[in-house]
Amino acid sequence: MKVLVPVKRVIDYNVKVRVKADGSGVDLANVKMSMNPFDEIAVEEAIRLKEKGVATEVVVVSIGVKQAQETLRNALAMGADRAILIEATDNVHVDIEPLAVAKLLAAVVKEEAPGVVLCGKQAIDNDMNATGQMLAALLGWSQATFASEIAIEGDKARVTREVDGGLQTISVKLPSIITVDLRLNEPRYASLPNIMKAKAKPLATKTPADYGVDISPRLSVVKTVEPAGRKAGVKVGSVDELIRKLKDEAGVI
Amino acid sequence: MDFGLTEEQRMIVETTRAFVEEELYPHEQRVERTGVLPLELIREIQAKAIAAGLYAANMPVEVGGAGLDTLSWLLYEKELGRANYALHWTCVARPSNILLAGNAEQRERYLMPCIRGETWDCLAMTEPGAGSDLRGMKASARAEGGDWVLNGTKHFISHADLAGFAIVFMATGEEETPRGPKKLITAFFVDKGTPGFTVREGYRNVSHRGYTNSVLEFDDCRVPAENVLGEVHKGFEVANSWLGATRLQVASTCLGRAERALALAVAYAAERKQFGQQIGKFQGVSFKLADMALELKAAELLTREAAWKYDQGTVTDGDMAMAKLKATEVLAMVADEAIQIHGGMGLMDELPLERIWRDARVERIWEGTSEIQRHIISRELLRAVGG
Description:
- The structure holds two protein chains of two kinds.
- Chain A is of the alpha/beta class.
- Chain A contains six helices and eleven strands.
- Chain A has a single domain, classed as HUPs (Rossmann fold), CATH 3.40.50.
- Chain A is about 25% helix and about 25% strand.
- Chain B: This is Acyl-CoA dehydrogenase.
């Protein structure tokens, strides 16, 4: 069984994000970019499936600027076998919308015919949480979102989902789209010998036109603002005062 | 001229830094406070380092290393160098290059167990009476019935307590030269437990807590002829051909720690407020930051250039001396100023600055003092004009 893992190049989670002066978005010039952490978890899971003998090949795909090649090399250095880069823009500030990404992925899925697509549940830049679900709808495949445990059993996958207030275990028919959550696994370090080997692994470069997909935007960003700064706290003199404030001012007890 | 890093080099930096921050930093304070690196902790981190392919990555591919070019290797050293020395040296060991000088049997017996993480090597040159002037060594070996018999004392021998064996340099004779008699040196492998070989606890010192040094004593210690590394009387030649880049290794580990200290100082200057504004807005602080960044960059470029020349085969002793000298002195300056910017807090061991400052001190002494490096640089200048 082949496993397809889409990976997105996003602003590194350690970077202190700055909003551009014109409010059109976040400043991405000269900031550290990395693989979306949820996608990293998906890559790790795919490699583990291969190590268990469940998967035969792990293919990673990224859609975005040509620098996303670095993100793909990272996935190859972790242990993926092959990569596809779909160069959809040359502007680092252009975000390809979930529907366009899902359509491109649907086209890749038709070509590659994977048994399962493992996606991050969302990308940490825009937090849309939409691509996996849209992809399942476009393909008419089953979907299991927010996975914290995955077991492939014959032509089915048993997936434990992180839902509000607990865990839910479902069984989905393969082929399926599974989106992964934080607690599924801990991604490995790309090992030094594998980093050196990653260069020799195949990386195909495509464009949206190759798949006949229109990626023109359907959404427009009205405004981007920084979250309001946290207000300074107050010191209370006694437990009684604390209780009174919690009751009367905060209204939490 | 290309100053950029390749995709692989960037990944090497990222993966090594992630490992250092996640697996080494959390243990630093314990090692610093107790001065002890427990064996069970070594084993735990070592297993992770082996899994990540970081262990012994300085070695060529054919013996199980990562086969890195010199710059890539030094970038890896720089990231490791950010952490407490005992932790990175012991748990993510880089066996000495000199082990590659061994014959097939010696490689199997000494090099491979070091690469597999089963033991560690140590190098014994320095003596109480022979530091920078190594040829002045008194410890000696004499041939006797097909064996060699070793006598004398070595000190300041790093991590000899952990090592399973030592590579020991001994005087084995003297030759006449136009400048007077010169000692001939031979390198020997000596296994721990060889009768007549004792490892004694060394000195407690200011830098690198948890990283020990020992005193090695040889009292009619007999080793077979097959334990000679390289050729008899050619110990210096072996050391010179295989240990050339260790000064660049020192430079790189210093750059890593200086970068860490600078990052702490910058963050603090942006966050700390006094007299109603960020202290980084005061010129007294901002100019310090600028000078720290400037000096650090200069040191880094010197090291990178020497690394590049090393791979081209055009590096000189002076190039490596310049890189080592600059990086170690910059570390001392950056660490000192980072503490100054932090004020009293910089001296507390909750922050890594006080130890980076202490650790900086040894770097200007070991692997050739700053004065020896200056001597090497000037000797190269003078020789070019017949001096």
